[in-house]
Amino acid sequence: MKFFIDTANLDQIAEAQALGVLDGVTTNPSLMAKEGITGKNNILKHYVDICQIVDGGDVSAEVISTTFDEMVKEGEELAELHDQIVVKVPMIRDGVKALKYFSDNGIRTNCTLVFSAGQALLAAKAGASYVSPFIGRLDDISTDGLHLIAEIREIYDNYDFGTEILAASIRHTMHVIECAKLGADVMTGPLSAIEGLLKHPLTDIGLEKFLADYKKGNS
Ligand code: E4P
What we know:
219 residues, alpha/beta, TIM Barrel, eight-stranded parallel barrel, 11 helices, 17% strand, binds erythose-4-phosphate, TAL/FSA, aldehyde-lyase activity, transaldolase activity
């Protein structure tokens, strides 16, 4: 399973990278705004800064256009920025057309805002590199987000689609574990969801005892 961090915060990206388990970064316009990154030039520069922190990892940069022609223009500009850029395209009618265009032209894509198995099937047919089902947002409206991951896994396996399932809108560590059990190819979430994986009280208690016993015998 690949680990992506879902943020535009450079410190958090660097921290996850330093842990040695980071495979990429996903951003979206809300995450960029949260970091106060505004204006086209600043936004493009920020994507390059992110690429430079994540050694060889994929960095999703989202288009803000909603028509085919504009998405193509914007996506091509984003893809030109760095070879680690993956163009993030919303699951709308023109987005599907843009996914197909980018796929035919060697530009990698992440189809975002996916909330149903049908949308995921369409994204794969259009040649998306990644599909991003938002499991946390489904959970928020009392719908089982993890069930969607299972459905998409089954469909993609039935037809050997190459599109990778990028479990998005991950909120906590149990989402990560359940997505791994269901065979999601990638997870993207906050740093806390990644770091939460390493925590166990018995590890802390055990280490404390090992170190105390060592100290007794070596002081
Ligand atoms: C995916 O790429 C999105 O950026 C993200 O996972 C959305 O998560 P949220 O529902 O926590 O905003």
